[in-house]
C-alpha cells in the first residue's frame, strides 16, 4: 500500500506485508482490501513467531469497511489466531499507513471493538505521531467481562504482589494493578496466574502500573502490560488508557493529562471533560516484504 508496495513491485510474489510498530508494540499488516486475506490460526501463529516468521505481537488485516462512514476496516489477530476486539497501537499504525496512502490527515477505522477516529498529531523529533479520539472507558463488571462484581470476589484476582485490580474495558478487557515498586514484580509469572483466573471469562490484558508523579502539568505512570494470550509487550495503547482511567477512578490523581512510560517508550493520554480519551504517540514502519503464498 502507498509508497511501500510501489517500492517493491516487479517480479516479487507472495502476500505483501508491512511490519509496523508503535513504541515496539509490533504488527505484521496485510492489505486484504482487494484480495481477501483470511489466514488460519496456525499460519497467524507462524507469521507472528519471532524465529519462524516475520515476528510480531499481532497480525493486522485491512478490509473494506462494513458500515458507511468508515474509511477502512481492520481485523486484529492475536498470536494464537483469536480475533481481538481492539488494539490502540495497531490502530495508530494502520491509521498512519492509510493516511499516508490517501494523503489525508484523519481517518475513521472500523474494528470489532467499534469505530475509532485517528488524526495525525504534531511531530516530535521527526517521528510521525498519531492520535486516537476514543469513546469513554466502561467499568461495569458485566462489560469487562468479569464473572461477577469485583468487590465481592477481588481476592480471586489477587496473586503475589498483584492485588486489588481496577477493571476497565477500552473495547477490550483490562485489569490494572497499581504497585508501589514495579521492578519488584515478576510480571510474566504473576500476571499469567491472574490472566487465567476463572473470574475472567474472556481473560484480560493485565497491566502492572506504578504512579511516578503527579503535579499541575501531568501525571506520570510506569506501566507494563501482559497481554492476552500471554505475551509481555513493549507498549500497549489500550493498557495506557486503562491505567490512566484507573489512576483517576481509584483516587490516585485528579490530573487528566498523563504520560505513561512503558518499556518501548511513552504514550500521552488525555482524559477529556466528557470522558472521551485522546491517546497520542509515535508510529513507525520497520520493514516490508512478502509472505510466501499457498497457505
Ligand atoms: N497492544 C494493544 C492491545 C492488544 C490487546 C490484545 N492482546 C487483546 O487481546 O485484547 C494496544 O496497543 O492497545
Could you walk me through the main structural features you see in this protein, from its secondary elements to its overall organization?
19% of the residues lie in helices and 39% in strands. It has 295 residues and is α+β, with helices and mostly antiparallel strands. It folds into two domains: 2-135 and 282-291, Diaminopimelate Epimerase, Chain A, domain 1 (Roll), CATH 3.10.310.10; 141-273, Diaminopimelate Epimerase, Chain A, domain 1 (Roll), CATH 3.10.310. It has a 17-stranded mixed β-sheet that branches. The protein is globular, with a radius of gyration of 19 Å. It starts with a helix and ends with a strand. The model has no long low-confidence stretch (mean pLDDT 94). The site of 2,6-diaminopimelic acid has 14 residues, from helix 3 and helix 6. The site of 2,6-diaminopimelic acid (API) has 14 residues, from helix 3 and helix 6. Keywords: Amino-acid biosynthesis, Cytoplasm, Isomerase, Lysine biosynthesis. It is found in: Cytoplasm.
